[in-house]
Amino acid sequence: MPSDLVVEVCRVENVSPHNNSDNLELIQVKGWQIVTRKNEFKKGMKIVYFPPDTLLSQEWTDKFNVTQYCQEKANMRRIHRVRLRGEYSFGLVVPIPYPDWEEGREVAGYYQAKKYEPPILCKHVNAAPEDPMVPKYTSIENMRNYPRIFDFDEEVILTEKAHGSNVRSGLIDTYNKKAGSHKHLRKAMAPEDMSVNWYWYPWTIPAFSTMMEALGKEHKQVVVYGEVFGPVQFLNYNSAGKLDYRVFDIMLDFEYINYDRMMEICLEFGVQAVPLVARIPYTLEAVRGHSEGKTLINGADHMREGVVVRPIVERKHPKIGRVILKYVSDTYLFNKKATQTDNTDE
Fold first, then answer.
1. Do 154 and 245 belong to one domain?
2. What CATH number should be reported for the domain holding residue 296?
3. H-assigned helices in the chain
4. How far apart are CA 77 and CA 215, in angstroms?
5. What distance in Å separates the CA atoms of residue 136 and residue 320, rounded to the nearest whole number?
6. Is residue 165 included in any domain, yes or no?
7. 339 pLDDT higher than 70
8. Is residue 2 part of a domain?
9. 3-state secondary structure of 269
C-alpha cells in the first residue's frame, strides 16, 4: 500500500526544547518531529520539508550540509530517520529559497526529489495482464503528512497494519477468479500450487472461497483486499513457515464498503480480518499511541507495524482521494530490518 512522495512548503507548527541537549531543539511539522539546531527555525516560519525516504542528489545534500547523515542509494542520497541525543528525528527541514513560495506548494520537482523504494523480495512473478474489473488498491497516504484530514474528535476506526504482502482477490461475473499483488495480477495456476503462492493462497481457504461465491451471486464485481503474511517479511507472526491471511477491505461493484459492513460479511462467513485496534475520537496523539505495542494477531509476540485509520462512513477528500491513512509506529520505523527490506510489492 504505497504512499506518494510529498515534498511541500509547510510551516513550523511548534518548537520545544530538547531534553538532552542545550544546542538542539524539537520542531513539529505536520505530524513529524525533527531535531534541529537551536534557534534555526521559529514557530510559524515557512519551510520545505523532505520526509524520510526522500532521495536527493548529492549536490542538494551538500548544499544543505547533510550528506554525511544520508545513505547513498543509486547515485543519490537518501534522507533518513535518526535518533539524536535520545529523540527521534524524521526527515529534513530547510528554509524556503524564495519568499513568495506559498504554503502547500509541491516542490519535489524543483529539487528533483524521488522516493526511495526498498528492494523487492517477491518470489512469485508469473504476471498476468491487468483487468479494470480488479483495480489496484488505494494508495494509503502517511498520516504524518496529512494530520488534519480527520476532524478533531471525529470517530475513527484503527486497524492493525499487518506486515506482509498486499493481495487482491477478484471474482468477476460469478465464475472468473482473479488474484494478484498491488502492482500485478497473476496467471491462474493449478489448485495444488495455490497453497504456496502468496497471491492465490486466499482462494485455498474454504471460508474465503465460500464468501467470494456468495458475494459473486449478488454482485457483478467482487474484489477483496487483504494481507498475506508469515514467511513473507521479517515480522513472521510465529508462523512456522506457513502462510496466513487477513482481509482489510472489500469492493463491491466498484465501491468500497464501510468497515462495519465488511466485518459483518467476514463474521458471517468466518473469514478473518485484520485486528481492530480501537474506535476512538480522532487526535494525532491518540493514533500515535495506538500505533505502538505488540501485534494483536493471535500467536505472535512481536511489535506492531502500525495502524490504518479510516472514517466510520466511506468518503473522499479533494487532496488525497479516498480517506484512509496509515500511521507506522516509531518502533517499526527505527528497526533496521524494516528500513532495508520492506517491499514485497512486485
1. yes
2. 3.30.470.30
3. 58-63, 191-194, 206-218, 259-269, 284-291, 330-333, 336-341
4. 48
5. 16
6. yes
7. no
8. no
9. helix
Nearest Cα residue to 189 out of 180, 134, 136: 180
Please report the pLDDT score of residue 238 as a whole number: 87
Residue from 42, 34, 100, 19 nearest 69 by CA: 34
The count of domains in the chain is: 2
| Residue 66 scores a pLDDT above 80 | yes
Of 246, 327, 256, nearest to 293 (Cα)? 327
61 & 149 share domain? no
CATH code, domain with 14 = 2.40.50
Pairwise CA distance, residues 71 & 60, whole Å: 14
Alpha-carbon distance 30 to 32, whole Å? 6
pTM: 0.87
Is 121 among the domain residues? Answer: no
Q: 156 near 279, Cβ under 8 Å?
A: yes
**All residues at 6 or more sequence positions from 76 whose CB lies less than 8 Å from its CB, including other chains:** 55, 56, 57, 58, 114
And the C-alpha cell for 342? 520492506
The least confident of 68-77, 160-169, 222-231 is: 68-77
